[in-house]
Design goal:
Blueprint (H helix, E strand, L loop, with lengths): L3 H16 L1 H12 L5 H7 L6 H14 L2 H4 L5
Helix pairs in contact: 1-2
């Protein structure tokens, strides 16, 4: 079993590897702003679809947003 520090380091490395440094930092800021129950979100927050379908739906949603909302200038 890993220590909490090892889990934190592995999690941060995963975020940076998958999102890049800036977006990993934005993700951390987003989940730190308000109470967030990750376990509950995993149960209900992600649609039951494969990665390609989810990506397609996310891109369609992003295109439907007003430009400022889809591409904010700052955090």
């Amino acid at each position: 079993m890993r220590t909490e520090t090892e889990i934190r380091v592995a999690g941060l490395k995963s975020l940076v590897a998958n999102l890049g440094l800036v977006e990993a930092e934005r993700f951390i800021a987003l989940i730190s702003r308000e109470p967030f129950n990750y376990t509950e979100w995993r149960k209900t927050g992600i649609p039951d679809m494969d990665l390609r379908e989810l990506s397609k739906a996310a891109n369609q949603y992003s295109r439907s947003l007003p430009d400022e909302e889809a591409h904010p200038k700052s955090l």
